[in-house]
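ok here's the first one, seq then struct tokens
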Amino acid sequence: MCCMTPRHLTSRTLLSLSVAAIALSTQSALGTDSHGDEPLAGQGILELTPGSDIVTVSNRYGFTPLDAIPSRGTYLVALNQMMTEDAFELLFLSDPEIDHSELNFTSGDAGPGTQSIFLFSVPGAYQNQPVREALGLEAAHAAVTGAGVTIAIIDSGIDPTHPILAGSIAPGGIEFTSHPADIMDPYAPGDFRDLCNGIDNDLDDLTDETVGHGTAVAGLALMVAPGAQILPIRVIDDEGTGTAFRVAKAIYYATDQGADVINLSLGSLANVEIIEDAAKEAVDLGIIVTASMGNAGSAAIEYPAGLNDVAGVAATDNTGVLAGFSNRNDEVNVCAPGVELISSIPTAMCGPALPGSAYGEADGTSLAAPLVAGTAALLIEKGTVLRWDDFRGALRQTCDDIEDLNSGIDPNDLGMGMLNVAAAVAWEGPCHADLLEDDVLNIGDVLAFLTAFSVGDPHADFAAPRGVHDISDVLAFLQYFGQGCPK
């Protein structure tokens, strides 16, 4: 694409901080963070045309390859000092081997702060917290638990020893918080743990401000879908720092690892194309992508939550009243509880941000998003959700209307309403074989399937492996056709 304007990824923890939480910390809870205001000096992202070689292209311009997504022909490079950023972004105009170029941006905080502060909670509080009743989890779990479904948590990592998470970790966990030692092997196993180092690396007067975030997000996804597996992918470090390239690489990695759901409790005020492309590929393959709307309490649109076909999640209290910290705009797909939630946090004491307990309480759209991710896992196990269109239909049919509880707020800013997990699980589902969407199954739907199948349309992709159109898709369609539509 032409002439990319500066765009940045802000991997804030998106936690709203209560006065009580601030009082428990010796660190500033509302520290400002300039990450993302400027591109990462001297770094750019190249997407090459098929058959092009990164070594050849790099030698041509004096670039140094730093990181890679070889399967997508996408690379992170260090620029030649003689090349300006503007010239780099325009390389595609003169070089037929370069399909797209854009600068790499650091992540950071454009909202109220990045400090992950958790109030102390006892283990029993996690299992008995009010949000479980508000979502109807007991009724939902009588039918499905998310068994056989993998949820990728792209975040600050997790604590794999935590009693909530141990035994629920999918193979393939990895970290992308540093450049690979070998550019030809950019997926070498790394330490995906949610760790602190006790050092204020970014000199913002906050130490290890993001530690615990990924562990808490994973714990809430499992609270909704206890039978699911978590694929941890660490893209933001203990200071909350990440890059656009890392997040896109993580989305592609989760896709290749067979994730069914991807949760992104992070956001950006700008739409970075490499992330948009990665999310679109995931959605086209039937993966449900959930993302937090942000905690600035404004109408600002954050990405990837603002992308088409990504479930952007705003936060409410347990009754459905929109949280004051939650962003609100017409890109919201669904609201979910995000106030005073209790979840897993790293078991080891890690500076004043963590209370030295395995459980903590916090607020934020970051914590609302995994509740929606867990719901998607339940519906995937049940078979009512095969792709994003199905999940959007489930939310539209089963979310609770909360307009009356939020007078003065544009109803469009509330999406489809507040998540109701029990109702979503009880929903009979769409008519998968009704490709003409006229609530009638006939020869027209068969012809529509054959046409979609012949051109590789995702709407004809009914069975694993997703993204491949073969006899299994034909058989699955015929089975759905024979079952008819739900009454």
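and now the second one, same deal
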Amino acid sequence: MPANSDKTKYLPSFISKMESAKLHPLVINTFTYYYKKVVSGATGLISDRDIKPVAPDEIEDASRIKEYDESGRKALSRAVIIKLNGGLGTSMGLTRAKSFLKVKNEKTFLEIILKQAERCRVKLALMNSFSTHEDTIVTLSMIKPSDSPLLFIQNKFPKILQEDLAPATWPKNPDLEWNPPGHGDIYSAIYTSGVLNSLLKNGIEYAFISNSDNLGATMDESLLGYFSENRLPFMMEVVPRTPSDVKGGHIARHINGRLILRESAQCPQDEMDAFKDIKLYRFFNTNNIWINLKALEKLIEKHNIINLPIIKNQKTLDPRDENSPKVFQVETAMGAAISLFEGATAIRVPTSRFVPVKKCNDLLAIRSDRFVFSKEDNLILNPRISSQTIAIDLDQKYYGKIDLFDERFAEGIPSLIDCESLTIDGDVRFEKNVTIKGEVVIKNIGKSQAVIKEGSVIDKDVILN
């Protein structure tokens, strides 16, 4: 750590580096704000002593706002759907944008999103990363949508060496000297790209933002109506936390009275038990966000910065080389903006609006008959399912990457309409027209791949060898 009197001596080097990369002054100002926090010893941690849980009666329930449908329909012409399209899906073995993955009925996330926007006649915008932007342009030219989406690119921050807080350098791959600033960068990116100004000039005031891998996050007229009629600056969709959500960000009430989002990386280690207590912190951030674009522009131009709560991630400079120098990556969360707006709120939505595909486990459920498309091209739970929830645990060694997954379900996805839980342990390949019911564990104890034969109906545990 530099001496106290010279803590920011490397800041000019960071600024020069960002200027050379032609980053917008707003982005440089924002990084400068966070860098000063890092050198002052800020951890970004949010302690239980500074927040309190949010009670159920503090959160409006979307099931009670159907009277806003008509207002929502009238506001559609002033709304935009923005999808975060910067992820590569590397955890699933993908090398291109995750939105190019075929997810249902041979359609990709991107194709489905385009159709959904077209159906509700709402403008679509995509925030790409440097890794997905060019590929997305090429893919859209092949799809030829009737209304091409607006495109803008996420910014980047320089990595900070933990040893002395200097800029990280890696001559053999300079791209690794930078990190994505997290999806909280969307507010800076939409402003610096000129997209915010363009939308406002065209009379668009309301933005619905969500992840491209969450097909449950569709434009909802009652939510739009509620948001617009109540003149809210910011609204986060939340769902009750479940045991599978214990690591995800929860909302709380800060001692200053505003709502706040706390991610796991912002929780002190000795308070993780409380963080994971789903009966204490009840509501989970879906990353479905509604924002008033006029309020956003006003906030940015007032402060010339988006000062979201900092997330200081500790990484290695080369993520594939654990012996490379240790760095800090400054990141922010999109939902954290709930604490920036006076009057920001959260609303409880059905879990059907939160069906992200983060792992191949999730993809199996979506590709199965548990989900169908409505006449509005929205992905919904099959009305014939016997259980609203399903727990799927596929052996990571054989199903963790998409190519391995596709090989083992090449003849078709089993019917899961009557399945409550499925665990597969070992290497198992499925032939067509397989049905799985109830709670099932399929285990292969042999040394070679096992096969579930065509037409099999499995309603109890199976051991194969």
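notes on #2: DSSP finds 13 helices and 27 strands in the chain. The radius of gyration is 23 Å.
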